[in-house]
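User: Fold this; tokens only.

Assistant: Input:
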Amino acid sequence: MSRPIIAVTMGDPAGIGPEIVMRALAHREVYDQCRPLVVGDLSRLRRAGEIVGSTLALNKVASPAEARFSPGTVDVIDLNVSPADLPFGKLAAIGGEAAYRFVERACALAVAGEVDAICTAPLSKEALHMAGHKYPGHTEMLAHLTGTPEVSMMLTAPRLRVIHVTTHIGLIDAIAKIEPGLVERVIARGRAVLVKAGIADPKIGVCAINPHAGEGGLFGHGEEATKIAPAIMACQAKGWRVEGPLPADTLFFRAGRGDFDLVVAMYHDQGHGPVKVLGIESGVNITVGLPVVRTSVDHGTAFDIAGTGKADERSLLEALRQGVQLAPPRP
């Protein structure tokens, strides 16, 4: 089988995306695993290369068919969106527009079967909105671009995988949105990804909403019994190893020591906090349920250090590795 072709989007050109792309593609093992193709702005990558002291050459291509995929050379589909004088570390609508265009092109390539996976560098949600693209983030934008009605966010870190029932909405709205059908679909999506990744019969722990899983009705308004438990019973009826609803504090501890292959979190901060404590530098964001494979770094644009050469590429390296693991085989 050939190494999968992975479209790497550059992210917001004013953030650390260009720098981590140039740092990551300097690692020879990336080319041993896959064939990376950057979708971005060549001039910005050249400037980022100067900042990080890179010796990589840049090869402008119009399509994956023209790429060399050779160590020491970064193949780039150059959209030439951001101006040369765009300052690093500054929020700007043009940065949001550029980031959107990069993802849009990568999605088109993936849907057409020209690439096998998408790996995204970070964008700024605020810049995205300034440019008129009203998405809460990458996850929702990718769902729209691929015509997918419902997707889930999965985060991975050393010793922990978490999939979210709700993500970029307020806590009160999240609790209102949670219902058994949604919980069951999220469990199913998460399980399918793990099976595809080689875990034949994954063990899944499902978080409660309330402290102590409601403590038998003492806390909350019976959400565990009405919103979560029916989904767990439906999954267990299929023969799946699903346990819960469990108190989140102890569930994350147990998952960290290896009792569970996947944790199902009910809302954004319930899942994000533990993952980022365990290793934001090597964390990965996976969009589950798309018709294409998408992985991403688990950090933001870091405008405070953009353009300084201090950005750490480890999360992008791990995102590329997991993209390879999930990509369909290419003949």
